Amino acid sequence: MNESLARAVSERVDELVALTVDLIRFPTVNPPGEAYTPCAEHLACILAARGFETRLIRGEGAPGDSDRYPRTNVVARREGRAPGPTVHFNSHIDVVEAGEGWSVDPFTGVVRNGKVFGRGACDMKGGLAASIIAADAFMAVYPDFHGAIEISGTVDEESGGFGGVAYLARSGFFSKPRVDHVIIPEPLNKDRICLGHRGVWWAEIETHGAIAHGSMPFLGDSAIRHMAAVLSAFEAELYPALDAKRTDMPVVPEGARRSTLNINSIHGGQTEDFFPGLPSPNVADSCRIVIDRRFLIEESLEEVKDEVIAILERLKRERPRFDYSIRDLMEVLPTMTARDAAVPRALAKAVRAVFGREPDYVISPGTYDQKHIARLGHLHDCVAYGPGILDLAHRPDEWVGIEDMVQSATVMAMALDTLLRKA
């Protein structure tokens, strides 16, 4: 245990809690992308006061970007006293909508019973605050460190990260020689190191029909019935096949160690939101579903797509008048950083010091911004590590434990010590 770093973090507990509360009070709800700019500006001020050079960078042209909802990111850099590697802490500032069922105001930042409550407390403003305190503590104890520390607050992770990390990665912010190591303080539990994530393929499937009067459906062709045939085939053929696939990746929870498919949405017919009116008496000439296919490192993207397309093509041969179109929405390959890479080794050493045990190494069931750092920045010494319990994310009364943030900040500070002073 590096007692000097642990003490420096513990001296900043009040600051850590206050920073978390301040961040929660920005309702950075995505979609549509509320309060991104004021939150990024607030972060820039906080980091500038700690000696960082800060830049506000708009993800111009990214999905959702507009003058009303600019995709504003902040990137801050603090140079050491001599050249060396750069460690980058990346956190997303956007949160999902609050939804119903809260016992507290979701955007107040309530501190109670050793916890901070609010939308984004766990996912992941608590982790962002912890990384800032970790860097501050490290720089106070070791002002003569070599290399550089970067901290970013980026947008749109909840909707794919295209206006945030993807935009910055395309612009060179997550590539060597600028950056060597990346830690993403996602809420994967304070004693676990997340090495990567499963792959994802999102696609829209549309079945086509012919419109006719609802009283004479035999004169038309129902796209909804065609889609029902697709869903029936998925149930009979695809779901059992996916359920039989297993991975050697340490994905958590256990149920995610297999391939999965979710139907994210379904829309069919001419009128879908008719309240307080009445629906149109028409045969549906279009029906669309969005599928969310999560796949394993043992599978190829081509194989994943072929399984779905094979069913659609068979239905086209066997079912009269069946026709479809398919459109890719997002595709990301699985990624898994090696345990012996520099960042996981540094974090593991710190976890052993703080908790007195070996860390668990896990893989996330869903993707996060590591995907863009790997595929666009071609930087693979990147993991997720941060405070918070993933099961609390996106739920009412979301919270992060204060002691969890303190311990995670201590781990991150000690990782900086290994990566920058003892590299």
UniProtKB/TrEMBL annotation:
Pfam families recorded: M20_dimer, Peptidase_M20
Keywords carried by this UniProt record: Cobalt, Hydrolase, Metal-binding, Zinc
Domain Peptidase M20 dimerisation: 196-318
Highest taxon in the source lineage: Bacteria
InterPro entries: ArgE/DapE, Bact_exopeptidase_dim_dom, Peptidase_M20, Peptidase_M20_dimer, Peptidase_M20A
Cofactor: Co(2+); Zn(2+)
Molecular-function GO term, any one: metal ion binding
Family statement: Belongs to the peptidase M20A family.
Protein name: Acetylornithine deacetylase/succinyl-diaminopimelate desuccinylase family protein
Organism (species): Chelativorans petroleitrophicus
